[in-house]
Amino acid sequence: MTFDSIFTHRRTGTDKIPEGPRSGFQRDFDRLIFSSAFRRLQNKTQVFPLPGTAFVHNRLTHSLEVASVGRSLGKMIGEQISAGYKGNDDVYEFYRYELPNVIAA
Questions:
Q1: Does a structural domain hold residue 4?
Q2: Would you say residue 31 lies in a domain?
Q3: Would you list the DSSP string of the chain?
Q4: How far apart are the two ends of the chain, measured CA to CA in Å?
Q5: Domain count for the chain
Q6: Which pLDDT tens digits describe the chain residue by residue (105 residues)?
Q7: Does a structural domain hold residue 51?
């Protein structure tokens, strides 16, 4: 089984559709960020009670912080994995450049 045979338009029965100015990932990400369910997280606190010196993190800021950490870890891991795929440009570029965004989502 190869990477190309797993992720092919023949597998899903659709041809590649022009994406326009935003990729499918960016559209999905924006759909999440602007959703009412995501905005409802802003009024939910993670932990109570907190000492006076601690910052209050609500679920929204916590989610954004976790996504940021996931993106950083994905970048580090993607760089290591991509080293094994230097001959295959598509796979190399996915692990090198797209994996951090997938993990952050």
A1: no
A2: yes
A3: --HHHHS-HHHHT-PPPP-TTS-HHHHHHHHHHTSHHHHGGGG-BS-SS--TTSPP-BHHHHHHHHHHHHHHHHHHHHHHHHGGGTT-HHHHHIIIIIHHHHHH-
A4: 27
A5: 1
A6: 676 656 555 555 555 555 677 677 778 877 887 788 877 777 765 556 666 666 666 787 788 888 888 888 888 898 889 988 888 888 888 888 888 888 888
A7: yes
Q: What's the CATH code of the domain at 28?
A: 1.10.3210.10
Full domain range(s) for residue 29 = 21-104
pTM, to two decimals: 0.52
Rounded to 5°, the CA angle 88-100-81 comes to 40
Q: How far apart are CA 33 and CA 30, in angstroms?
A: 5
Answer whether residue 14 is part of any domain. Answer: no
Amino acid identity at 95: Y
3 closest CA partner among 79, 101, 103, 81: 81
